[in-house]
Each structure stands twice: as C-alpha cells, then as structure tokens.
TrEMBL record:
Annotated GO CC locations: large ribosomal subunit
The protein's name in its UniProt record: Large ribosomal subunit protein uL1
GO molecular function: rRNA binding; structural constituent of ribosome; tRNA binding
First and last residue of the signal peptide: none
Similarity comment text for this entry: Belongs to the universal ribosomal protein uL1 family.
Keyword terms of this UniProt record: Repressor, Ribonucleoprotein, Ribosomal protein, RNA-binding, rRNA-binding, Translation regulation, tRNA-binding
The keyword Oxidoreductase appears for this protein: no
PANTHER family tied to this protein: 54S RIBOSOMAL PROTEIN L1, MITOCHONDRIAL, LARGE RIBOSOMAL SUBUNIT PROTEIN UL1M
Organism name: Clostridium grantii DSM 8605
Superkingdom: Bacteria
Alphabetical list of Pfam families matching this protein: Ribosomal_L1
InterPro entries on file: Ribosom_uL1_bac-type, Ribosomal_uL1, Ribosomal_uL1-like, Ribosomal_uL1/biogenesis, Ribosomal_uL1_3-a/b-sand, Ribosomal_uL1_CS
GO-annotated biological processes: regulation of translation; translation
Length: 232
C-alpha cells in the first residue's frame, strides 16, 4: 500500500468516515485540506450510472464555468483562409495546418491544451487521431471544438470552458477551479457543471444516474457529496 504524506494524513482526519456532505460543506472541507504550497486544482469526480461500452449511454459535452478554471489555456487551431486571421484575432496561441501536423507527428509536440478545427480541416486533423484521441485532445462537434465559428470557440475556451466525458470506468473527471478561489465561486462552478451533467443524461440510462460525487484537491483526500443533493 502506498504511503501517504503527513499533510494528507492530517487532512484526512478532518473528513468523517461514512459521512456525505452538501456541496458547500464539501467545498469548505476541500479548501481546508488543500495544504500544498502551490495553488492546487479542485477537481470533481462523478460516478455515473451508465455503461460506457454502449454508444447510447455516453455522457459527453462541454460547459463554460462562470468563474473559469484558474488555468491559462493554450489553444491550437487548425484552419485555413480567412479563418486563420479570425483565430489569431480571437487569441488563439497557435494557428495553422500541415506545419502543426508535422510538428506533432515528428517532434512529439504538445504545447497546447485544447485543439479547435474548422470542419473542412478535419480530413487533415484526422491523421492525428491515434495521437490526439488517447490524450482527449481530438476536436469534436459535441464539445464545440469542430466549428467554423472559431472566434466563439476560442472565447469560450479562454473564458473557462471545460469538457466532460465519461471514462471506461463510468467516471467523469473535471476541474472546477483552484485553491485560491473563493468558496462561492467554486460553488457556482460546481453547480454549473452538475447541471450540465444532469442535462446530458442519456435516454438509455436506467436507474440512479449519478451514483456518487467526490471533490478533492490535487494533493488532498476526497470529500464525498450526498448524491441525492448534488446541486445547491
């Protein structure tokens, strides 16, 4: 069994075993247990009552958090023609086509956090599927990253847009802010994300849709939220 650090053990003592908290109580506890010297990320993990093996039970989408994530996001845009200038003016960090395909394939370059592509570029970007896919970086229409409206896509991403997608174990992992955020702002972000997850419920999902919700900081223990009261 892996050993835990002193800060983690001290933080864990603040959380009562077997107790589930309201969202605001959980946020307060997570902030108290975030004792690292850096600005830890506060992350939500939700176990969904779906079977990810079935296409009609996928939970995937994107939502703009009202207070952002606290992270500076680098955006790579695949575009051509007038859309190149539009992307540059909108604040994209990198804009281009073949040159970035080559850079990623030949140099293993990944100095970006999100990839946006215009629909007419997906034939080119598709060549990176095996590389971008496993990293969760492949542009997708459902998350708004395949679009001709690159300016809006970039603005949303820079403003705090986050993608959510259920993994193979039926869990969704999404950051909702930083330790330096005020509790109220974290709660706003949390509620916005949970409302998006609830709206994304697949029609094929049966039984309890949200089985558990846990909040944690980068280096801290998890705090469980009452699944019957996931929003506040």
């Amino acid at each position: 069994m892996a050993k835990t650090g002193k800060n983690y053990r001290e933080s864990a003592k603040l959380i009562e075993k077997g107790v589930v908290y309201t969202p605001s109580e959980a946020i307060d506890l997570v902030l108290k247990t975030a004792k690292a010297k850096f600005d830890e990320t506060i992350e939500l993990a939700a176990r969904m009552g779906v079977d990810p093996r079935h296409a009609d039970q996928q939970v995937r989408g994107a939502v703009v958090l009202p207070h952002g994530t606290g992270k500076t996001v680098k955006v790579l845009v695949f575009a051509k023609g007038e859309k190149v200038k539009e992307a540059e003016e909108a604040g994209a960090d990198y804009v281009g086509a073949e040159e970035f395909i080559q850079k990623i394939q030949n140099e293993n370059w990944f100095d970006f956090d999100v990839v946006v592509a215009t629909p007419d570029m997906m034939g080119v970007v598709g060549r990176l599927g095996r590389v971008l896919g496993p990293k969760g970086l492949m542009p997708n229409p459902k998350s708004g990253t395949v679009t001709f409206d690159v300016a809006k896509a970039i603005a949303d991403i820079k403003a705090g847009k986050v993608e959510y997608r259920v993994d193979k174990t039926a869990i969704v992992h999404v950051p909702i802010g930083k330790k330096s955020f005020e509790p109220g702002k974290l709660l706003d972000n949390y509620n916005t994300l949970m409302e998006a997850l609830i709206k994304a419920k697949p029609s094929a999902a049966k039984g309890q849709y949200i089985k558990s919700v846990t909040l944690s900081s980068t280096m801290g223990p998890g705090v469980k939220i009452n699944p019957s009261k996931v929003t506040e």
